[in-house]
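Backbone description:
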Amino acid sequence: MAILTSLIGSFSRSRPYPKGNPALAEQEPMWSELGGTLVRAGVGIDDNTATTITAIWRSLKLIASTIGGLPLHVFEKQDDGSRKQVSYVDDKVLWDQPNPEDTNATFWETLVGHEVLGGNAYIWVDADAKSVPISLWALRPERFAVGRDDDGRKVYTIDGNTDNPNTDFSEGGNIIHVRGFGRDGLTGINPIRHMANVLGLSKAAEEYAALLFSQGTSLGGVLSTDQTISQAEAQELSRRWDAAHRGLAKAHRTAVVDRGLKWQQTAINAEDAQMVTTRQHQVAEAGRLMGTPEFLIGSHDKTSSWGSGLEINLRAFQMFTLQEHLVRFEQAITRHLLRGKRYVKFNTNGLLRGTASERMNYYERGQRIGIFSTNDIRALEEMPSLGPEGDARFIPLNMGRLDAMAPQDEPVPQVE
């Protein structure tokens, strides 16, 4: 127990909870009774209610969790134009664990989720007297109001505290703002609010379906007669009919009825059938809004997206959806937290990692023309370096520069 207490005390001293950190005083926001903006479909939509739509939730989790789980590497530009991966020992807290409560994955997953869902992500930076970051904290975007002071500098009001506005960390403040696509130069557009009517239709269709199954009636058929019968007789006729015809073993048996009874088959009406199609369409709408392929959020059409097209679809997802979020975070971290020629990159190699034979063929060809050294290949496979000997690069022995070929002693005979 003494050892554990010592370890906890050491950890707390190295990563304290600085006073005045708004992340430590954060409270759950109060959601409106309508659940947000009331849209034409008659339901309320905000960031909270939108995530109850399964396609939105899955898309959000897919993007945030994928990026949150990627390794974050620091590189340094070399004088010859190349780059070198470096160990950022001085600020290890940023790459090992951002604060005493969050792991790297959960911290970046939370921030990416804020930016994807609301168009903005905000990081609170606690630093020492030399402006060296001690810890990073994620704050809810709805707590912020962004504007400019009299000098045109970007300022942030947190929880309505206009007496003490904050500024960017690179300007001496505590805030790193990761802004999505926007039009005013201050904040990103919230896609949920911007597309509230589209998502409201999805939510309304979902609620209608729930009411249909909880309150509606859908009978397999009706026994009718022109005669007047008592309730007890009706119940007995229903029991006898079910006993004679219900169940797989009794399917397609010939029905014989008396007393003028008639059997009428019933089915779901056209409006309710169209509701099913509407809900399928709304899955595609949600995927289109979030930039996620339908097959990744559990929706499949008649044309399969698997098989040989899987890698192409995943590459498109990385290039046209993940990349925009990755670049925003990489540039924000580089600008505020790094100095000199250093910059950060998320390692996306694992997203499209091929089979063992495909990787070996790729490495072999790259090594053959001098792109990869043995240590480069081992690093990509997460294996230890072989030392300086592993940095050597090779070229095929039967290749040479054309302009360096020795002249021929005798002219080549011409063929007439």
